[in-house]
Write a structure and sequence with these properties.
By secondary structure, the chain is mostly helical. The protein has a domain of about 60 residues: Ribosomal Protein L24e, Chain: T, CATH 2.30.170. Helices cover about 35% and strands about 5% of the residues. It is rod-shaped. A two-stranded antiparallel sheet has the order 1-2. This is FLZ-type domain-containing protein.
Length: about 120
């Protein structure tokens, strides 16, 4: 414990850590370690290989209908169905956000109530 106090008491000095080997001393990996060609069907596929919605394979000589720049579809119908689903999801999200905001407003502070009073003169006779 005394060694720790002594080594830390000197201002401006840092503890010395021995250097480990440099990167130059590491073994050089062969090029075969960097390139692995996986031709199995289970591997990742190119994003234009199948329809995003129905997963139908896209033929190389057929039209591909794109949505949002990088989502492929086999037909206009599949694309329109996805657009409709996205619009419905966005609409529901906005409704839920409004509902949550209204609930937050109503639960955080009660709205002030206005009391209407009619001014009149009473004459006793």
């Amino acid at each position: 414990m005394e060694d720790i106090k002594t080594s830390c008491s000197a201002a401006g000095t840092a503890p010395h850590f021995p250097r480990r080997g440099t990167y130059r001393e590491l073994p050089v990996p062969s090029a075969t370690n960097f390139f692995l060609e996986d031709l199995s069907d289970d591997g990742p596929r190119h994003f234009l290989d199948s329809c995003f919605l129905c997963k139908k394979p896209l033929a190389s000589n057929s039209d591909i209908f794109m949505y949002r720049g990088d989502i492929p579809f086999c037909s206009e119908e599949c694309r329109e169905e996805q657009i409709d689903m996205d619009e419905e999801r966005e609409k529901n999200r906005k409704i839920a956000m409004k509902k949550a905001l209204n609930q937050k407003k109503s639960s955080s502070s009660p709205e002030p109530k206005t009391i209407h009073v009619r001014a009149c003169t009473v004459v006793a006779g």
